[in-house]
User: Fold this.
Amino acid sequence: MVSSSSFLSQFGQVGVFLLFGLFFAFFSLFLAWLVRVRGHDPIFRTTYECGPEPVGSSFVQMNVRFYLFALLFVIFDAETLFIYPWAVAYKSLGMIGFIEMFIFMAILLGLAYAWKKGALKWY
Assistant:
């Protein structure tokens, strides 16, 4: 059974962090309220586009290809994030670590598939 003094010493730190976090959140909200704009000028609330009045709708149709490139970037970014520590600890991981990384690198076959299907062309 855990004594009450060790319980408080272990979870007291969490409580202190929680109190500091809540204080920081409320202090940030108070500062935002303190420096907010209080004017009700209708010209101040209009959008600004380098001087002239805004023309047209703000809706812009997004091309799906941008989404595809973003997903490919996230895949390569995650792979880079995991390959670097693996390369540093390569000798201590042995053959099992090598096989696991080989399986992980198979994700790159998805890029080859997308490239072969022509998903990366901008025509």
Q: What stands out?
A: The longest helix spans residues 4-34. Residues 4-117 form a domain with the Methane Monooxygenase Hydroxylase; Chain G, domain 1 fold (CATH 1.20.58.1610). The two ends are 69 Å apart (CA to CA). The chain has a mean pLDDT of 80.
